């Protein structure tokens, strides 16, 4: 396939772009600053999600868009809305105009809101409580309402592995969370596997899939994996916004997904 991938200088997108290229796809990456793109062998298209005019050339001639770009940590509600919601609208509109066949959107499992220890499947009503998942859910709703575009949504967990310092970097944010709180996780290799399955599958359009490992470790275990003592549990209320566990059965049953890294250990 000829693909356009956004967010190709980020944690998920950079690793995904390289893996899609290795499997034989012809990958074009949308970047704002080509000097920041360490993507040998991948075509670069200079553009910005907030600059609608810059997107027409980026989507021209591609079979599918894989939209990974997002503003997460440190974003205000306004910034999250601008990039994650409005930016997605701009890109999807440009893709439809260019007759792109498929649009894959990497969303977040946090759109479900707190699940109280229960596993959330894709049919569960969403009630996000933080600006980032609110903006991602708004983008999902727009995508499912746009005509003439084959949309697939992947709701991702906390993504780790493959040389990514994500666990260590998230420690300060989670330092006061309850140590026994569990977190759905997914390895970068398995995110790429899920995207590849979505790109190739003839399954119905407008389909949502959770992507998640077989095991959701406790935060104490996650902290220990990078040599940190367990979190203090002093701010359980703040932790509640991230207390979301994902049910990953649909993508296994429909597309044959099997995590290559099924658990943190």
Structural topology:
Blueprint: E1 2-6, H1 11-22, E2 26-31, E3 43-46, H2 55-59, E4 64-67, H3 77-97, E5 102-108, E6 119-120, H4 131-145, E7 150-156, E8 158-160, H5 166-174, E9 185-187, H6 188-200, E10 207-210, H7 219-224, H8 236-239, E11 245-246, H9 249-255
Please write the CATH class name. Answer: Alpha Beta
The biggest sheet amounts to: 7 strands, parallel
Strand-pairing-aware structural class: alpha/beta
Taken together, the total number of domains comes to 1
What's the helix-strand series?
EHEEHEHEEHEEHEHEHHEH
The CATH homologous superfamily: NAD(P)-binding Rossmann-like Domain
How far apart the termini lie comes to: 34 Å
What is the helix tally?
9
Assign the CATH topology: Rossmann fold
Q: Total number of β-strand segments? A: 11
Q: Uncertain runs with pLDDT below 50, 5 residues or more?
A: none
Helix content: 25-40%
Query: CATH architecture, please?
Result: 3-Layer(aba) Sandwich
Judging from the principal axes of the Cα atoms, what is the shape?
globular
Residue-averaged pLDDT: 95
* C-alpha Rg (nearest Å): 18 Å
Feature tags:
single chain, Rossmann fold, two-stranded parallel ribbon
Question: Mind explaining what this structure looks like?
Answer:
It is built from nine helices and eleven strands. The chain is an alpha/beta fold and 265 residues long. The protein has one domain (2-164, 185-214, 247-255): NAD(P)-binding Rossmann-like Domain (Rossmann fold, 3-Layer(aba) Sandwich). Strands 3-2-1-4-5-7-10 form a seven-stranded parallel sheet, sandwiched between helices. Helix 1 crosses helix 6 and helix 3 (77-97) packs parallel to helix 4 (131-145). The two termini are 34 Å apart.
């Amino acid at each position: 396939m000829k693909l356009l991938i956004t967010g190709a200088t980020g944690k998920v997108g950079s690793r995904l772009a390289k893996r899609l290229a290795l499997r034989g796809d012809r990958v074009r990456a949308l970047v704002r600053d080509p000097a920041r793109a360490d993507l040998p062998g991948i075509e670069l298209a200079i553009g910005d999600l907030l600059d609608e005019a810059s997107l027409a050339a980026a989507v021209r001639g591609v079979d599918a868009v894989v939209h990974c770009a997002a503003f997460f940590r440190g974003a205000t509600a306004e910034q999250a809305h601008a990039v994650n919601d409005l930016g997605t609208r701009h890109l999807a509109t440009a893709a439809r105009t260019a007759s792109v066949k498929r649009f894959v959107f990497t969303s977040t499992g946090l759109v479900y809101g707190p699940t109280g220890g229960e596993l959330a499947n894709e049919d569960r009503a969403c009630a996000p409580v933080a600006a980032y998942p609110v903006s991602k859910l708004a983008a999902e709703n727009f995508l499912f309402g746009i005509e003439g575009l084959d949309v697939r949504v992947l709701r991702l967990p906390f993504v780790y592995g493959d040389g990514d310092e994500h666990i260590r970097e998230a420690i300060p944010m989670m330092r006061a969370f309850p140590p026994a709180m569990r977190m759905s996780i997914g390895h970068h290799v398995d995110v790429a596997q899920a995207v590849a399955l979505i790109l190739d599958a003839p399954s119905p359009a407008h389909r949502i899939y959770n992507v998640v490992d077989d095991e959701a470790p406790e935060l104490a275990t996650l902290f220990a994996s990078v040599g940190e003592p367990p979190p203090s549990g002093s701010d359980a209320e703040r932790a509640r916004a991230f207390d979301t566990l994902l049910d990953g059965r649909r993508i296994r049953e429909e597309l044959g997904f099997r995590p290559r890294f099924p658990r943190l250990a």
